[in-house]
Write a structure and sequence with these properties.
alpha+beta; about 25% helix; about 200 residues; 4-stranded mixed beta sheet
Length: about 200
C-alpha cells in the first residue's frame, strides 16, 4: 500500500517503525483496516507520556496509508477515529504530525478529522528557567501557541521552539516582543506583545 501511495520503496522506514514499536518503551499504536479479507489501510503512532521534559502527554502520528483503490471510502477517517478513541482512553487529547504541503489528499483528510496547520516559531534566550514543554504562549491573556521543545545550541544559547496555529499567527509580527516572566510565587509565563 505504501509503495502505491508514495511511489517509493520505504520498506526500511516501515521496518524501523515496527522495530521501534517492538523495542521502545513508549506506547505505540499500530492499526490496520481490513475489507474483504484484505488489508486496505494502516496507521502507526506513538504516545509520549511526559518524555523529554514534556509536561503533558502527546501522540505523534508517524504514518498513515490507504490503498488507492479504497481511497475516499472512509478508511482513513475510520483509522483516525479509532486512533483518537484509543488515545482518549489514555487521556491524550493532542496529536501531532508533519505533512508535506504538496500532499493535498492527506492534508484534506487531516483537516476533515480536526487537525489544523501550525507554524513553528523559535525564540532565543540566555535562560529558560521555568519554561516547560507544553506551556502556553499567550497574547492578551489568550493562549495562541504551545512550547514544543527546548534546545541548547552549540554557542550556549537556548532555543524555545513553539507551535502556533496559523489562525493565531496573525497576532504576531516581526516586531513582536516576547517576555518570559517569573513570579516570586507561581508559574513562569511566556507572553507575546504586538510590536510597533
Amino acid at each position: 500500500i505504501d509503495r502505491q501511495i508514495t511511489g517509493r520503496d520505504r520498506q526500511a522506514y516501515i521496518a524501523e517503525k515496527l522495530g521501534e514499536a517492538m523495542d521502545d518503551s513508549a506506547i505505540r499504536v499500530s492499526l490496520s483496516a481490513r475489507l474483504d479479507d484484505a488489508i486496505v489501510g494502516y496507521l502507526m503512532a506513538r504516545a509520549d507520556l511526559g518524555d523529554f521534559g514534556r509536561t503533558e502527554p502527546v501522540a505523534v502520528l508517524d504514518t498513515i496509508g490507504v490503498d488507492p483503490v479504497y481511497a475516499r471510502h472512509g478508511v482513513g477517517h475510520a483509522l483516525l477515529s479509532q486512533l483518537f478513541a484509543n488515545l482518549d482512553a489514555l487521556r491524550i487529547d493532542r496529536v501531532e504530525t508533519v505533512v508535506a504541503p504538496a500532499d493535498v489528499p492527506l492534508l484534506g483528510l487531516l483537516y476533515r478529522t480536526g487537525f489544523e496547520p501550525s507554524q513553528r516559531l523559535v525564540l532565543l534566550s540566555d535562560d529558560v528557567e521555568g519554561v516547560t514543554v507544553g506551556m502556553d504562549l499567550t497574547f492578551a491573556g489568550f493562549p495562541i501557541g504551545r512550547v514544543r521543545g527546548i534546545e541548547l545550541s552549540d554557542d550556549g544559547t537556548t532555543r524555545i521552539v513553539i507551535d502556533v496555529p496559523r489562525k493565531d499567527a496573525r497576532w504576531l509580527r516581526e516586531s513582536s516582543v516576547f517576555t518570559l516572566t517569573r513570579g516570586l510565587v507561581g508559574n513562569t509565563n511566556l507572553r507575546a506583545f504586538s510590536g510597533v
